[in-house]
Amino acid sequence: MPADQLPGDYPLWHPFTQMARFEREPQLVVARAEGNRLIDTAGNEYIDGVASLWANVHGHSHPHIVGAIQEQAAKLQHSTLLGITHEPAIELGRRLMPHLPGRSRVFFSENGASAVEVALKMAVQYQANRGRPERNRIAALDMAYHGDTLGAVSAGGEGPFRDVYEPLLFEPLRFANAYRYRCDGCAAEPACTDACVDSLRDLLEARGGEVAAVIIEPRVQGAGGMIVAPEGHIAAVRALCDEFDTLLIADEVATGFGKTGAMFACDLEGVTPDITVLGKGITGGYLPLSATVTTEEVYQAFHGEEGRKLFHGHTYAGNPICCAAALASLDLFEAADLLARTRERAALLSALLAERIADHPLVGEIRQQGLMTGIELVADRDTREPLPAEREAGWRVCLAARDRGVFIRPLGDVIVLMPPLSIEEDELAQICEAVAYGLDRVPRG
Question: Where are the domains of the chain?
Fold first, then answer.
């Protein structure tokens, strides 16, 4: 199929895609991938600047992961975890634990949103099993994003991800996020104040007796716009959860497996959540798998009587082929110091962004943690006035970047860069050149 056209009977309905626009634009039809590049049906190569939706870790077609998938597929393709088990799931649980100190139990699911659902249900049932059924509310950050299933959407922030589905959702208790660029309290200050953490204290002082858990995206709020919290934010939230005797859920679906420069974002501050949610990069980005990982204290609240068990499960949870891919990915982490390499690449990316992009008149702020980067576009740098939505500036930049051999996607008018950990120096330079090229092609006025 030519990469610039679709067949007349094209049957697909794409996620988060306005199909009317999709159908009238030149299409990128991916045929295969190698290393850090996607290759379309015409043979054109594109650096995978968003790691295939923030999931790919080691590059595409890595022989060790591919080999592990093939070997497992020849032995056991699927077996349920409902009441029986299999070796790849057992081994993956064991191998994850050294990377997650203080946690001891793993509940597998198939995608990040499903694992968030598990975490929310665990938190509420944990409180009920301990004789505190009145603690059934979830406290969540403003502008949060935790996935697209109903419980995950409920915990998410207001906006197009959530608003239209309001009749189906539960309402969380909200507290302020650390969006300093648009914060009334500290945008003009030399550094972040404690206003966002203080809002959580106020909430817990007023309604802590209702709260089953506080859920956060630690350090970086991904789909909210790559919002980077200051050093100390995760630890401050942990301390408040301890003070008010509530659980902390860390949604590390986006931040996990090296992208922040640490294995997990909570590691940046030495914090142990009660419940940790993993996904995306857990298999290296090769197959769908997620996990909800808990402390022994949480697990023990479900142990014993039949009625205390967790009433939740998925058909393909802990699929053995997916577990084999995840084990192979862990092999690669443990065989080399990928995190040190990631920090080196992140420093280079920061320098390239400062040199080539930061001073562009459309760029209001660049936010970065490790290889997770958001470039917020504005109409006026001095007033921080947002661009009119109808200009579709973020989309125009990303579409133009393809002309320079780079595939990226925006979050509205925030350009997201999140390449695989395996990204090379020249590829980072090419990504930044492509963004600069795209910015220059956004119509002025």
Answer: 19-62+337-439, 67-335
Condensed to tens digits (0 to 9), the pLDDT of residues 262-288 reads 999 999 999 999 999 999 999 999 999
- CATH architecture type of domain 19-62+337-439: Alpha-Beta Complex (3.90)
CA gap 64, 62 in Å, rounded? 6
Mean pLDDT of 116-124: 98
What is the pairing mode between strands 247-251 and 275-278?
A: parallel
How far is it, in rounded angstroms, from Cα 305 to Cα 316?
26
Which 8-state DSSP code applies to residue 323? H
Q: 3.40.605.10, 3.40.190.10, 3.40.640.10, 3.40.50.10940: which CATH number matches 67-335?
A: 3.40.640.10
Residue 5 is predicted with a pLDDT of 65
The answer to whether 298 and 103 have CB atoms below 8 angstroms apart is no
Contact 367, 376 (CB under 8 A): yes
What DSSP string runs through 252-268? -TTTTTTTTSSSSGGGG
Mean pLDDT computed over every residue of the chain: 96
3-state secondary structure of 392: coil
119 SS3 class: helix
Please tell me the distance from the alpha carbon of residue 394 to that of residue 141, in angstroms, as a whole number. 24
Strands 290-294 and 406-407: unpaired
* Whole-angstrom distance, CA of residue 355 vs CA of residue 366: 12
Q: How far is the C-alpha of 80 from the C-alpha of 87, rounded, in Å?
A: 12
